[in-house]
Amino acid sequence: MNDDRQRIKKDIKSMTLEQLKEDLVSRGEKAFRAKQMYEWMHVKLAEEFAEMTDLSKTLRENCASWYDYTCLKVVRVQESKIDGTKKFLFSLSDGNLVESVWMKYKHGNSVCISSQVGCRMGCRFCASTLDGLERNLLPSEMLEQVYAITRLTGERVSNVVVMGTGEPLDNYENLLRFIQLLTDENGLHISQRNVTVSTCGIVPRIYSLAGEKLQITLALSLHAPEDEKRRSLMPVANRYSIRELMEACRYYLEQTGRRITFEYSLAAGVNDSDEDAQKLAALAGPLNCHVNLIPVNPVKERDYAQSDRERVRAFRQKLEQNRVNATVRREMGRDIDGACGQLRRKHAQAAVNCNDD
Ligand code: SAH
Question: Which domains does the chain have, with CATH numbers?
Answer without folding.
Answer: 2-68 (1.10.150.530), 73-352 (3.20.20.70)
